[in-house]
Automatic annotation (TrEMBL):
GO terms for cellular component: cytosol. This is alpha,alpha-trehalose-phosphate synthase (ADP-forming). InterPro entries: Glyco_trans_20 (IPR001830). Its EC number is 2.4.1.347. It comes from Corynebacterium doosanense CAU 212 = DSM 45436.
């Protein structure tokens, strides 16, 4: 079966929000994020279609066109799919395995069967909408079998795959009971993209380990490495570091910044963390480091405020509940020890803020603290930098975030070592006071990097390699 769309993006989620209307009816409205913004021009220019789950179990809205002419084509997931494919195999098996076992992955055959089944259904939906010879771009760890299934049912397609999270070393990946199927699934693509050369190198090492022929070395934005697919096809492998759409962050001004700082009690220094509440992000560790700095007297609670926005995420999973309760216990303890009536020292929000509100906090923060144990890229770090065109502010960044490869002027730290996190926070605060010119110069270098390597550049680089891959 084939449809009319020459360019198809397949992702776990459709870029839509469910709106409940006053009369009780429901409608779906497009919700543009970075990836959608980057791909909309390509989608609009090519009879584009986005295939994905609308985000609510058991909902099956009709396909519809956005204002830009992009067809949104929903894939329906049941409550059981959501539990086994999404929460189970994707987020309690693959997510911890690919993030280097920060918690132990659970290997459950029924979750795997659901993952296989859902991947199959996604591929069948792509088959319905993709025109003869179309280009299909599959996104992320939830859909690693889709390239292989599509290759079998639609050999006419050009297939790209991009992994948004890290790819682990072969010794970790080999734990996975269904490792051969995942590798076969990925090798159905013509081009495999990772954030970093080291992620791509891990994948190539894995192939060598299982005697799949590989040539060349993984490079950034150029395809210099090839794996061999089951049918002898060459599969390009390269790194494409993702980035942000700076224009999507909107604007802030002095009044908005002054208002936010005023609400915090006008402290000398505002520190900020913004994350999904995920155990990979090191939220507890950064709060503990902050607490130790208060305890030792290196920081004075009168002078500082720490704003932590922790967006709710995967809340039914045990490890996420534990991470949340540990973070909330730490917030309570730190405020109990160092706060005053009407003046907490940690301002904690467990809610998603509108992007424009996030923008004001990014602009208002003197020090952004980004301390994941492992992160494919980390867009928050790049968003903060993009909100400081004047060179103000300072970034504390984990060495284990993909973004650290590009944002080398940040105050880098090892999140496994609390002394290192504390030192980086102090360097950032003291650097702003003692050497503002040096700090501004460092921030400007990072600003230049982020704004010249934006999400458009990322999408164009990947799609240009994908075009070359099938020539
Ligand atoms: C995965 C990989 C990789 C957060 N809180 C709010 C909010 N956000 C937005 C941020 C940012 C995005 O969510 C988070 O992106 P990250 O990259 O930091 O992290 P993950 O969600 O884990 O993303 C990661 C990414 O995919 C892309 O490939 O970089 O490594 O793990 O844009 O601004 N947005 C709003 N309110 C919030 O409260 N509106």
């Amino acid at each position: 079966m084939s449809g009319d769309n020459d360019f198809v993006v397949v992702a776990n989620r459709l870029p839509v929000d469910l709106t409940r209307n006053a009369d009780g009816s429901e409608s779906w409205t497009p919700s543009p994020g970075g990836l959608v913004a980057a791909l909309t021009p390509v989608l609009s220019a090519n009879e584009g279609c986005w295939v994905g789950w609308p985000g609510t179990p058991d909902a099956s809205p009709e396909p519809f066109h956005t204002e830009d002419g992009v067809l949104l084509h929903p894939v329906s997931l049941t409550e059981a799919d959501y539990r086994d494919f999404y929460e189970g195999f994707s987020n309690a098996t693959l997510w911890p395995l690919y993030h280097d076992l920060i918690v132990s992955p659970v290997y459950d055959r029924s979750w795997w069967e659901s993952y296989r089944d859902v991947n199959h259904r996604f591929a069948l939906e792509v088959d319905k909408v993709a025109a003869e010879g179309a280009t299909v771009w599959v996104q992320d760890y939830q859909l690693q079998l889709v390239p292989g299934i599509l290759r079998q049912i639609r050999p006419d397609l050009t297939i790209g795959f991009f992994l948004h999270i890290p790819f682990p070393g072969p010794d970790l990946f080999r734990q996975l009971p269904w490792r051969e199927e995942i590798v076969r699934g990925l090798l159905g693509a013509d081009l495999l993209g990772f954030h970093l050369e080291s992620n791509a190198a891990n994948f190539l090492d894995l192939l060598r380990h299982v005697s799949i022929p590989v040539e060349g070395t993984a490079r950034t934005r150029e395809v210099q490495a090839f794996a061999t697919g089951g049918d002898g096809r060459r599969v390009g492998v390269a790194a494409y570091p993702i980035s942000i759409d700076p224009s999507s962050l909107g604007h802030s001004d002095e009044a908005a910044v002054a208002q936010r700082r005023g609400e915090l009690g006008d402290p000398a220094t505002v520190l900020l963390g913004v994350d999904r509440l995920d155990y990979t992000k090191g939220i507890l560790q950064r709060l503990t480091a902050f607490e130790e700095l208060l305890e030792s007297g290196a920081l004075d609670a009168q002078d500082v405020a720490f704003v932590q926005v922790a967006t709710p995420s995967r809340e039914r999973l045990e490890e996420y509940r534990r991470a949340r309760s540990e973070v909330e216990e730490a917030v309570g303890r730190i405020n109990g020890r160092f706060g005053a009536i009407g003046r907490p020292v940690v301002h904690y929000l467990h809610q998603a803020l509108p992007k424009r509100e996030l923008r004001h906090y990014y602009s208002a923060a003197d020090v952004m603290v980004v301390t994941p144990f492992k992160d494919g890229m980390n867009l928050v770090a790049k968003e903060y930098v993009a909100c400081h065109p004047d060179g103000s502010g300072s970034l504390v960044l984990s060495e284990f975030a993909g973004a650290a490869q590009e944002l080398t002027q940040a105050n880098l730290c090892n999140p496994f070592d609390s002394e290192s996190v504390k030192a980086a926070i102090l360097q950032a605060i003291q650097g702003l006071a003692a050497h503002p010119d040096v700090m501004a110069q460092r921030m400007s270098v990072m600003y230049e990097q982020v704004t010249t390597h934006d999400v458009d550049a990322w999408a164009n680089a990947f799609l240009s390699s994908l075009r070359d891959a099938r020539r």
